[in-house]
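Summary of Year 1 activities. Much of the first year was spent building the evaluation harness for sequence design. The harness presents a backbone, in tokenized form, and records the residue chosen at every position. We chose the following record to illustrate the format because it has been used consistently in internal testing since the harness was completed.
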């Protein structure tokens, strides 16, 4: 059975965008633009509430690996957010891209594994790749395409999102399988967020319809989450003689300018197998010079190398995570950005 992502739409007055009509093949040929080897991705800025007004469109926030699919006459390349070639890690997506029937294109989107409810499952995606540092190829993953940066010889990054989306919808009209269109909807952002939260989706992405594609965290794209989830650096652990695996909790840090700042610890979300693997990995990174000066019994410090995805419910007054839970390790090749305290929205 094909797993389908549940739409955000719950009411008739929330409108899904319509595909544009197909391009006229008789129109004059425009000059070709050189195809970029890589486009630095546009990133979403974290906000507590959705924006209002007709200039904003919304999508599901997918919980996976950000990828760009480069379709060229010589073949297909799948590039991670950090610029690594992972074509061999996603063979099913690569094969689907080869069958799209276009000479040149760059698709921006997210590789995910969907559960039975059609929700993206980050843990399942990790397992399909063999875990952090694994070499397995994922055949279960699908690519949710949400932007078109280059198409048929033309650079689209300078055009507004509404135009890029119409071209993308036209391009992927009727396409199913390992490459799918991430639906764009229009409506009240607060109502869409409520719908997403009620369905167990991580959150929504808001995108300004009139803006070109600008790399970095410009504010053109916003992310609003039901349950907060971010990447933090593991800087050590607290030993435990009771917990299986010998880890009582992981010590976490975020960035602040060019320094590390302690944001608390996490002691839930990992089982004995996870704990044993984490301890083995962190023991190889042991250091007597902690990234953040901490005092306490049974603390083991590690070089800041392993990045953990952490789910949490907010922040305490002293800057620590509330009700944190471990979700998994991020891949180095995924170039997961460690959370920057300067991006933390006011409580």
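For this record, the design step produced the sequence shown next.
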């Amino acid at each position: 059975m094909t797993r389908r992502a549940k739409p955000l739409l719950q009411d008739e007055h929330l409108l899904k965008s319509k595909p544009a009509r197909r391009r006229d093949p008789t129109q004059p040929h425009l000059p070709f633009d050189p195809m970029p080897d890589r486009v630095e991705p546009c990133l979403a800025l974290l906000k507590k509430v959705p924006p209002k007004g007709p200039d904003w469109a919304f999508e599901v926030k997918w919980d996976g690996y950000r990828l760009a699919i480069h379709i060229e006459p010589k073949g297909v390349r799948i590039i991670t957010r950090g610029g690594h070639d992972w074509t061999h890690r996603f063979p099913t997506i690569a094969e689907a891209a080869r069958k799209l029937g276009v000479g040149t294109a760059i698709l921006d989107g997210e590789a995910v594994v969907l559960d039975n409810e059609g929700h993206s499952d980050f843990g399942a995606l990790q397992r399909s790749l063999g875990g952090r540092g694994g070499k397995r190829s994922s055949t279960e993953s699908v690519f949710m395409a949400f932007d078109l940066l280059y198409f048929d010889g033309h650079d689209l990054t300078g055009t507004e999102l509404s135009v890029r989306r119409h071209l993308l919808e036209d391009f992927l009209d009727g396409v199913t399988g390992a490459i799918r269109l991430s639906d764009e909807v229009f409506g009240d952002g607060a109502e869409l967020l409520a719908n997403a939260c009620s369905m167990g989706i991580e959150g929504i992405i808001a995108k300004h319809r009139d803006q070109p594609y600008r790399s970095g965290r410009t504010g053109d794209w916003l992310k609003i989450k039901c349950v907060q989830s971010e990447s933090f650096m593991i800087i050590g652990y607290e030993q435990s003689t009771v917990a299986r695996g010998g880890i009582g909790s992981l010590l976490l840090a975020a960035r602040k300018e060019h320094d590390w700042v302690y944001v608390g610890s996490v002691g839930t979300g990992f089982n004995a197998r996870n704990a044993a693997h984490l301890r083995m990995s962190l023991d190889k990174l042991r250091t007597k010079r902690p990234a953040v000066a901490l005092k306490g019994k049974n603390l083991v410090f590690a070089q800041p190398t392993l990045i953990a995805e952490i789910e949490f419910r907010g922040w305490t007054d002293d800057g620590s995570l509330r009700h944190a839970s471990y979700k998994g390790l991020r891949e180095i090749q995924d170039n997961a950005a460690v959370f920057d305290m300067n991006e933390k929205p006011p409580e």
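The CA atoms of residues 12 and 240 lie 54 Å apart. Quantitative recovery figures across the full test set are reported in Table 2.
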